[in-house]
Amino acid sequence: MSESEKLLEIEDLQVHYPVRTGTIRGVDHVDLTVYRGETLGLVGESACGKSTMGRAIMRLVSEPGEIVGGAIRFNGQDLMQRREGEMTQVRGRDISMIFQDPMTSLNPLQRVDEHFVETIRTHEKGTGKRAARERAGEMLDRLGIQRERLMDYPHQLSGGMRQRVMIGLALILNSQLVIADEPTTSLDVIVEAQILDLIKELKGAYHMTLILISHNLGIVAELADRLAVMYAGKLMEVAPASALFDAPLHPYTQGLLSSVPNIRLDDQALRTMEGAPPDLIHPPSGCRFHPRCPEAMERCKREEPPFRHVADGRAVACWLHAGQDAGGVL
Amino acid sequence: MSQAEQLDRTAERRVGPVRWFLNNAKWHGAEWWITVLGGVLLVAIILMTVFADRLAPYDPIKFVGAPFARPRAQQSVVVLESNVTIGGLADIAEAAVGAITNSQATRELDERGFAYETYSSPRVAVRALQEGEIDALVTDAGDPKFRKQVRLQEVATKVVGDPFGTAFFLGTDNYGRDVFSRIIHGSRTVLGIAILAAAMSAAAGIPVGLFSGFFGGSLDKALSLVMDSLYSFPGLILAIAMAALLGPGMLNVAVAIAVIYIPVYFRLVRSKVLSVKESLYVEAARSLGAKPFTTLWLYVFPNVMPSIVVIFSVNVADSILTEAGLSFLGLGLPPPAPDWGFDLSAGKRFVPSGYWWIITYPGLMVALLTLGFSMLGEGLNEILNPRLAEN
Fold this sequence. Notes:
The complex is a heterodimer. By secondary structure, chain A is of the alpha/beta class.
């Protein structure tokens, strides 16, 4: 893995939400690397900072959130150093995003073709409307939607179709990196399966790199090459998908995996994790997971475990694995 | 043309145009008849405004009849016949006619260039008629002075009616001006000022609201403070102050009214922008590289638009009331100009004497016009609401 080309390097990223009662540390000192061509699954409970991180990569953190520190290097260039005007050129062309709720992510007053034409012409000034519409039509063919649907308004499309259109919009300019923020959460299982198949197929066809944000381990298991587990604004564990599912290192990852019902192992009781995610304004001292951790030690309450590269392509932030150190950063 | 197409066409033709419209218009569960009723009312009044010159039978500012003539009472000018038959204008030209000095009748006869004898009082004139001095007496039977001296039944002649066709449909006011004509011409004043005012406040409030809501920051805070203070001021009082400051004149009155409604648009647009701006499709547009102005123009503004259309309609209704209020207080156009509010205030002191028509009709018009715009606004609200459109 390490010999592949690094597409995106996130270094020490911090996103803060100033609120009346204090500052929510949505993303707190996170380092993460995404390699070209891979699918990285970003998993965790609700409100752990997954979506904030996805948005921060595009510098689209919603107000009052703010990226207060860190670097986001895309193809070696730090996006944090760019002006807002330059960012609009990156968004949609180099990095694009698929949102959770397809029902509301299209402008209700614009036809499908207008969405495509506007996106294409924002980034490619020279393209004529007719040519842009033609490309939109080809994209719909790929997405498995009839071309006539170009003239439809979003409310005339089903949820699955709208999500396909959103995927098409994200891919129309051959973005190198696509961030899919829970792309199938609001769809039913049949449509979900279709959309996942479509993403898989298009990923091959467009050679894109995908960051898949989800709380659903099943989806991630199906698509992701590597997984990053987040908890309370911090990365807990990063590992190749198969390794993580076979042998999770972090107690939080273990808990997360055992709380997924497994139809094949019916003798295994479904376990849930005690407690709830912590308050991010006043996070617990030491390891943020220690109040819920079954294996918490005295040290966990006082000192924060470093996020350390422990084995081949695996990194974890836990004192249980403090002895191991494969050296270097992941 | 294929057979199927032909079938389609005949199916379409089978229903009349009205039914077709009702079937095909997307009402989205709106009470369509409210909208239609409001629309019809408005179209009627707007037509009245446009064709005021043709529709109004009299000049609205001239004294054209006896004061306080009752509505539709065909008594303003009558011919008391004796030995010739007076049927119309032509007969008057042939006959020797008389009229009472300085009455409505002399005015009518002068206007048409008829020769006539004048008599100083009704009594003298009736005697001349009975003695055969004149063939007919042209007089204003509704004139109180005439009524006092001559009882029509006692005159050995008969009232043949109104050769000039000068009945006042809605009566006359205390100066003898035609109420109907004043109402028709008054609609110009009222509608003109109200629509101008609403358009001006929309033109000022919408862009400011858009920018303020979209870009936020300290400019937004400052603008909101200014607009909220303006909004918290009682509307009519502010309009009175503004109107007094600016003086009379159509544009000035419109400005005075516009000022009080700017915050209405500002607040509506700003709050809509704040919610639309947070919507996923705006965020999605930004994630696809849309620039702020593109986002504002293509994504935020069109989605704010339906509520603006609705509020505009309701706002015109409000402006009509405010305009009527201002002119009722004497802050509208200067007096002889036809203006419903002014006529209401001028006529109100005659109501106790039984002259109800002077204020009833202008009042009714204010109510109808306001109702028309309100119903249209209400209907548009339901038709244009995208949330209802989804079902």
